[in-house]
């Protein structure tokens, strides 16, 4: 089932406060359906209002009530995170890869930081169901990351493998470690981009 609404998620701190960042979730990209390339670019620039329902058959038009005419810095993306299932990286169709590359180049033109997360690594390497500590030294995982990097132009040090919670009942420190490592780098890249923006508009 494809998520169609543009949704923003805040992360609670203790009490009633929130951490100073948000996650914006959009409809998935596909070679024959899913979110349109133009809508992804509009979202990066902050033109898509929260709650907008993406339409695979038509992009968000300027003048629509869900179109943000003059986005503020807080509306714009600071980090673009690609999420792919590790066990399907080698099966991506060329048209899908072309769309993703064009989005990556558009984000790069805006100096937006980019990170990729490869999920379901235990499906790619079944041995990781028992122990995921050696994820970065497993040959199959490294080869998959190299293919992904070559296909999309994302550096290896910006690709983070994670294992999904899907059978586990209790929290697992090893699974959490991979997820938190990816989150840490996302926040760091976002902070770097914010600093970059601030330096550009700071009075000389």
Tell how many strands the DSSP assignment holds. Answer: 5
Mean pLDDT: 87
Give the biggest beta sheet.
Answer: 3 strands, parallel
Helix and strand content put the structural class at: alpha/beta
Beta fraction: 15-25%
Supply the number of helical segments.
Answer: 5
Strand order of the largest sheet: 3-4-5
Provide the low-confidence segments as ranges.
none
- In whole angstroms, the N-to-C terminal distance is 50 Å
Globally, the shape reads globular
In sequence order, what are the helices and strands, one letter per element? EEHEHEHHEH
> Helical proportion?
25-40%
Radius of gyration, rounded?
18 Å
List the helices and strands and how they pair.
Blueprint: E1 7-12, E2 18-25, H1 37-44, E3 79-85, H2 94-109, E4 113-119, H3 121-124, H4 139-152, E5 159-161, H5 173-201
Parallel strand pairs: 3-4, 4-5
Antiparallel strand pairs: 1-2
Helix pairs in contact: 1-2
Please tell me about this protein's structure.
It is built from 5 helices and 5 strands. The protein has 204 residues and is of the alpha/beta class. The strands form 2 sheets. Strands 3-4-5 form a 3-stranded parallel beta sheet, sandwiched between helices. A two-stranded antiparallel sheet has the order 1-2. The protein starts with 6 loop residues before the first strand and ends with a helix.
């Amino acid at each position: 089932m494809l998520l169609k609404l543009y949704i923003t998620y805040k992360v609670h701190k203790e009490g009633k406060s929130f951490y100073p960042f948000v996650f914006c979730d959009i409809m998935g990209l596909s070679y024959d359906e899913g979110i349109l390339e133009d809508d992804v670019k509009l979202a990066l620039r902050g033109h898509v209002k929260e709650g907008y329902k993406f339409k695979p058959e038509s992009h968000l038009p300027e003048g629509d009530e869900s179109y943000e005419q003059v986005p503020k810095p807080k509306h714009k993306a600071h980090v673009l995170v690609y999420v792919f299932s590790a066990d399907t990286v080698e099966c991506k169709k060329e048209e899908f890869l072309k769309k993703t590359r064009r989005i990556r180049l558009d984000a790069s033109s805006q100096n937006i930081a980019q990170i990729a997360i490869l999920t379901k690594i235990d499906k790619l390497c079944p041995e990781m169901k028992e122990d995921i500590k050696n994820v970065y030294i497993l040959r199959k995982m490294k080869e998959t990351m190299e293919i992904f990097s070559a296909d999309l132009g994302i550096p290896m040090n910006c690709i983070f493998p994670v294992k999904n919670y899907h059978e586990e009942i209790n929290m697992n420190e090893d699974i959490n470690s991979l997820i938190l490592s990816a989150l840490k780098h996302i926040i760091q890249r976002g902070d770097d981009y914010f600093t970059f923006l601030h330096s550009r508009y700071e009075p000389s």
